[in-house]
Write a structure and sequence with these properties.
Elements lengths: L1 H79 L16 H18 L9 H18 L8 H24 L37
Helix pairs in contact: 1-2, 1-4, 2-3, 3-4
Length: 210
């Protein structure tokens, strides 16, 4: 009787071991499956977030580029009439009334760009340089700062305008902005016009109009 009892006990033990091993195997497989599903879900979420961020960056860059192009057009309008900038508030302009009025219109366009297109520019440094240009233009045109040296006034604004133009072009190209330089002090005693330390090669090209 003890023989059959031992056999039964051994069989039950083996069966219990098999069942326990099978249960553990199932639990481990389920754990690994859940872990794999969780990892895949996390990866998919991360990839989706990265894709959304990439789309957002691309859209921001597109808006910034479009705005920079529009601002460049406003700069070009003022650049064409810069010789009349000191005449904007003058009753009797040094040049023609037509040139004075056109320059005044270009100044208004420049200022309008500061409160419209400029907010689509993503780079805060480029935005600040454009605002500085608006201030300088109005300092010359309406406030008469530096009026004792008309030629230098005009060239100061022209060179700073080109500096801002260069900054916007760099923004469009995706290249680094020109290094920071303080804007011109319009009522300084020196006669030499303001100029940034580094200028694009084309500034010296007669075809560029500089």
């Amino acid at each position: 009787m003890s023989f059959w009892t031992d056999i039964a006990a051994q069989s039950l033990g083996a069966l219990a071991g098999t069942l326990a091993g099978g249960a553990i195997t199932v639990l481990v497989a389920r754990w690994q499956t859940n872990r794999s599903i969780t990892a895949q879900a996390t990866l998919a979420t991360a990839e989706h977030a990265a894709s959304l961020r990439l789309d957002q960056v691309s859209q921001e860059r597109a808006r910034s580029t479009d705005a920079a192009r529009t601002l460049l057009e406003r700069l070009a309008d003022l650049y064409a009439w810069l010789p009349s900038l000191p005449d904007v508030s003058a009753e009797t302009p040094y040049l023609s009334r037509h040139a004075r009025d056109q320059c005044g219109t270009a100044m208004q366009s420049l200022r309008r760009g500061m409160i419209t297109d400029l907010y689509s520019i993503s780079d805060p440094t480029a935005r600040e340089r454009y605002r500085e240009l608006v201030r300088i233009a109005y300092d010359v045109g309406w406030r008469g700062i530096g009026a004792g040296n008309r030629a230098r006034q005009i060239r100061d604004v022209k060179h700073y305008l080109r500096y801002v133009q260069h900054s916007l072009e760099a923004l469009i190209d995706g290249s680094p902005l020109p290094e920071h330089v303080e804007p011109p002090v319009l009522d300084r005693p020196e006669d030499e016009p303001w100029q940034p330390p580094v200028v694009p090669w084309y500034w010296g090209d007669p075809a560029d109009g500089s």
